[in-house]
Amino acid sequence: MDVKKFQAVLFDLDGVLLDSSDTWWMAVDATLKKFDKPGIDKESFLKTYWGPNLMISFEKIGLGEEAIQDCNMQYYSFADKIKLFPETKYVLSSIKKKFRVGLVTNTPKEITLFSLKKFMLMQYFDGIICGDEVDHGKPDPEMMFKVCKRLGVETKNTVLVGDTSADISAGKKAGCFVIGLRIGDGDKRVESLGEVEKFLGV
Fold it and tell me: What is the dihedral of CA 56, 54, 11, 184, to 10 degrees?
């Protein structure tokens, strides 16, 4: 693989840069119970809710915009559970020296900015696209096209790093080179962010 063609690297947020699965699980569980739905254990949450746009998962069980807004508010109640993966800042800093860096997340903009500021990550990104800034979140590729336009690059010259099937699908549909973090079916699988840095030769 000739990595010299790559001009930008796009990262998913939750599960890639931030260890936020407990926070989102607790938020979803609290919302489900509030709206008279059965609660959910973490394993089931990861299988059902982790990755796709929340609207997709909620619509399947008859919940709409009100429940989504509630879940987003619940997020802040459990925000103390969020952790920064150890390699995140180092890898972002290293990759930014050579590439344009983008963030593509189904998480709403307000929560995304809250999380980025909480861990002082804002300075690493040249473009950010969130779930409420597109008509269709991942696994739809709209987000990839929008951020690449903002970065001034073509998707074919872009790497996407994601940890869910929604990321893999969106990246492939957009024509990105897809790196799966702890997940297969992309163009390359890695087990850590450090391996991404090594692959890109930075």
Answer: -60
